[in-house]
Design brief:
The chain is mainly α and about 130 residues long. It has two domains: about 60 residues; about 35 residues. About 70% of the residues lie in helices and about 0% in strands. α1 packs antiparallel against α2.
């Protein structure tokens, strides 16, 4: 059975390995970006739409911006810190006759909620 020191050592090695891998991936992505930006700049110089000095600055600016920007996260990746809270209103709450007429299906909904609560209690007992 490995001791705590062995587990700690493996965790450190894992962290160093992950950091090294991330550095390699970032370096390869920057190299890929520089290559693609250089191709685009060369094409613009060839067309006469950009001077060679402007092309060099363009490539340098693109790489610099890529190094400064944090990774893009999609909206689906973000998870809430805790589940959304749902408030259950007590069944004893009084509804005036006027409100009952205006809301129409409130009594029917209350009855459905009661039935579901009873079924939930029954399932918890089983």
């Amino acid at each position: 059975m490995p001791g705590f020191g062995d587990i700690l050592q493996k965790a450190v090695y894992l962290g160093v390995g992950l950091a090294s891998y991330a550095g390699e991936k970032a370096g390869s992505k920057l190299t890929e970006l520089r290559t693609e930006a250089q191709k685009l700049a060369d094409e613009l110089v060839k067309r006469g739409e950009m001077s060679t000095e402007e092309a060099r600055r363009f490539v340098d600016d693109m790489v610099q911006q890529a190094q400064q920007q944090p990774p893009v996260e999609s909206a689906g990746d973000k998870k809430p810190a805790e589940p959304r809270r749902i408030e259950i209103v007590s069944e004893e709450e009084e509804v005036s006759p006027k409100d009952a007429k205006e809301t129409g299906g409130v009594d029917k909904l209350r009855e459905q909620v009661q039935n579901l609560q009873e079924e939930l209690r029954r399932l918890k007992r089983d």
